[in-house]
Amino acid sequence: MGDRLKHQWSISHNYLTGITFGKWCKLLTQNGFQVSPAYLHRAVVITLASLSNSAFAALESWRYGAAIDRVQITKPPLFVLGHWRSGTTYLHELLAQDTAQFQFPNTYQVVNPYTFLTTEGTATRALRWMLPATRPMDNMPMKFTSPQEDEFAPLLMTLTSLYLGISFPSRMAHYDRYMTFRGVNQAETEAWKIAFVQFCKKLSLNDPRALLIKSPPHTARIRTLLEMFPDARFVHIHRDPYRVFQSQRHFFDTAGWYTYLQRPDLAAIDEGILQRHEAMYDAYYEDLPLVAKDRIHEIRFDALEADPVGEIANAYSHLSLDSFAEFEPKLRAYVGTLRGYEKNDFTQLDPPTKAIVADRWARSFDKGNYPK
Q1: Angle formed at CA 356 by CA 85 and CA 268, multiple of 5 degrees
Q2: Are 41 and 9 in contact (CB under 8 A)?
Q3: Rounded to the nearest 5°, which phi and psi values hold at 283?
Q4: Which of 35, 77, 273, 312 has its CA 20 to 30 A from that of 208?
Q5: Domain coordinates in residue numbering, the chain
Q6: Nearest C-alpha neighbor of 249 from the set 218, 288, 229, 277
């Protein structure tokens, strides 16, 4: 990966620009104000943004707080699960085409959870120039209105997310606990749940459609999600573990560089990828018996890629989702627009690394029937 600091001067792709001033001060205090000199300019930008966010957050709370508290989420959400780089975004995008049945958090909303009801219309027009056409780690289109993983919203509201370990890699081990919430004190877990439900209520204000929610860390939180939404449905996607490892490496060498506030330890990245996968699927398989068999559906990425309409139809049937016949023409039309999409092309893993992945992730190879 090299030792130089890639994208050092970039201030885009940083979710912390949606934080409020009080939370930003708390986050800095928790990390001993240890921002690397190379990234001080990012801290300045976040600080300035946080002041504006705090003002708009107060206004939004005054305008909508009581109405949000009264919201009742009556339709069970559908959660898209799967390890990072397993095809969760592709699956999320396909399901999100069913706008008759689902609503979903978008890119702007997840990084502005305190203010999006007030600022989204104006800010997305004014800041459109800051958003690149595609994501930094792949060629997926990127818009403020695109379906986006919700992890960033409760992160900014509670400061409990493993993603903060990318911003502050010196405390990665501390933040990794928040993927599963195993070993996290009850107060922090309850605060995260309250924030998550509050965000879902904001999304559901004046929109009765079921929530379609995607976040890889949720793969390790089924029991916690069921405590909030006992009737939730889940669809889990998996992919060749070798490809997942390569693609996750690529993520840290592309998108990760936009987020750092401390110099990363590049030598620790591979081990972190291996450990997080193990922890995620330890939790996933421990919690899986809690879900009724007709409330969860498994999809292979290669099968979805080969026949997206057929695989989505199977998911609708298994999960008893409504109106696939009405949705199918729109889904087919969307799939047609994706022809010519070019995936990342990786060189083969070297034999020692391949052996480590095969050994450490043996369960994923075996359960997914992937050749080692």
Answers
A1: 70
A2: yes
A3: -70, -40
A4: 312
A5: 15-368
A6: 277
**284, 222 Cβ separation under 8 angstroms:** yes
Q: How far is CA 163 from the centre of its chain?
A: 9
Supply φ then ψ for residue 141, to 5 degrees. -60, 150
pLDDT in tens, 116-156: 999 998 876 656 545 555 655 455 666 788 999 999 999 99
Phi, psi of 28 (to 5 degrees): -65, -40
Q: Are 319 and 293 in contact (CB under 8 A)?
A: no
Q: Which of these, 96, 94, 87, 90, lies nearest to 145 by C-alpha position?
A: 96
* C-beta of residue 103 within 8 angstroms of C-beta of residue 77: no
Cβ pair 155, 148 in contact under 8 A: no
The C-alpha atoms of residue 75 and residue 165 are separated, in whole angstroms, by: 33
Lowest mean pLDDT among 30-39, 195-204, 254-263: 254-263
pLDDT above 70 as % of the chain: 90
Contact criterion met (CB below 8 Å) for 99 and 211: no
**Shortest CA distance to 11 belongs to which of 260, 251, 252?**
260
Give the Cα separation of 176 and 164 in Å (integer): 9
Domain 15-368, what fold?
Rossmann fold (3.40.50)
DSSP code per residue over 132-176:
-SB-TTS--B--TTSB--TTHHHHHHHS--TTHHHHSGGGHHHHH
